[in-house]
Design goal:
about 300 residues; alpha+beta; Beta Polymerase, domain 2; OB fold (Dihydrolipoamide Acetyltransferase, E2P); 3 domains; five-stranded mixed barrel; Polymerase nucleotidyl transferase domain-containing protein
């Protein structure tokens, strides 16, 4: 089974998990519970809600990863009833003639991207649309599986905003996005960092996001142990992995090789030669190489990357 980050796995009990690592660990897929059904309707869970729900009802899916030194969720292959794949779902969406208004917005967005030479074969759709759990306020979550296509997509989004085919987020839209993220940056800091990424915009009043998913072959299999909380200031020396999953920034901090983020809030957060302040968790792998991880949970409370200049 070819499993990739941001795929959704539906178990035999009807739980939907989002994949967070493409490689198996002890025969299990590392993931996080995102949706459960209530009265035959999909309900999205926060990190805290998901942890509580599994501990109460399905503790077999609660998992400690010795490789990541982190508590998350995991599903064995035999418990996977359905494998929801973003590429496949997007193809279905683009070929369908019976879409709802959210799906129509997604198709219109894809038409705009394709008209600007974006390779649609490298794109997929995740989030609520992946399992048809969308509602009137749902966002569109696009994923890209090739870095070159992703960077081209960002430039196209910037151009389409300038041409008026897409719109920047309004102050209200930014406030809603900020509230959802519940991050440790101030609102003004959050917006300043986000506005220069060009990986989100509005189409027909609906927000969409674009994420990059790395080739699984490039995934790192080193194991890490946590060494405690840390805050420091340093300079970014390489931002080529800034939008990867996880996002990675090489830094000039003494004894620390990289800053890594597993949460989308800090993907693309800083650029080469910028000075940043990082608050996160110091980790060390089996080779003695240290890194700072920002985003030990989706919300990453108390953890952040902010540009100083």
């Amino acid at each position: 089974m070819d499993i990739t980050v941001k795929d959704f796995l539906e178990t035999t009990e009807g739980l939907v998990f989002a994949v967070v690592m493409p490689t198996l660990e002890q025969g299990k897929v590392l993931c996080f519970l995102r949706y459960v059904t209530e009265d035959h309707i999909w309900k999205k869970l926060s990190t805290e809600q998901a942890n509580t729900y599994l501990k109460q009802h399905y503790p077999q899916y609660v998992y400690y990863s010795p490789v990541l030194d982190a508590h998350l969720h995991a599903v064995t292959l035999e418990h996977i009833a359905l494998h929801h794949q973003p590429k496949q779902r997007l193809r279905q969406l683009l070929q369908s003639k019976h879409n709802d208004v959210i799906e129509d917005d997604a198709v219109q967005l894809c038409d705009l991207l394709q008209a600007n030479t974006v390779n649609m074969a490298q794109l997929g759709i995740t989030g609520s649309l992946l399992i048809r759990a969308q509602h009137s306020e749902s966002d569109i979550d696009l994923v890209c599986y090739q870095k070159q296509t992703f960077q081209h997509c960002r430039q196209v989004i910037k151009s389409l905003i300038e041409q008026g085919h897409l719109q920047n987020l309004s102050a209200t839209d930014w406030q809603e996005a900020y509230s959802r993220r519940d991050c440790s940056l101030s609102f003004s800091e959050y917006v300043w960092h986000e506005q220069r990424k060009y990986n989100k915009a509005m189409i027909n009043g609906r927000k969409f996001d674009l994420s990059l998913i790395n080739d699984p072959a490039s995934s790192n299999t080193d194991s890490y142990r946590k060494c405690g909380a840390i805050t420091l200031q340093c300079k970014v020396t390489d931002d080529s992995g800034a939008f990867d999953y996880p996002a990675e920034f090489a830094v000039d901090a003494e004894g620390i090789a990289t800053v890594v983020s597993f949460t989308a809030t800090y993907a693309g957060q800083a650029q080469r030669d910028e000075s940043i302040e990082v608050s996160g968790v110091l980790e060390c792998n089996q080779h003695g190489i240290k890194r700072i991880v920002v985003g030990s949970s989706r919300e990453a409370h108390g953890e952040s990357i902010r540009v100083l200049g």
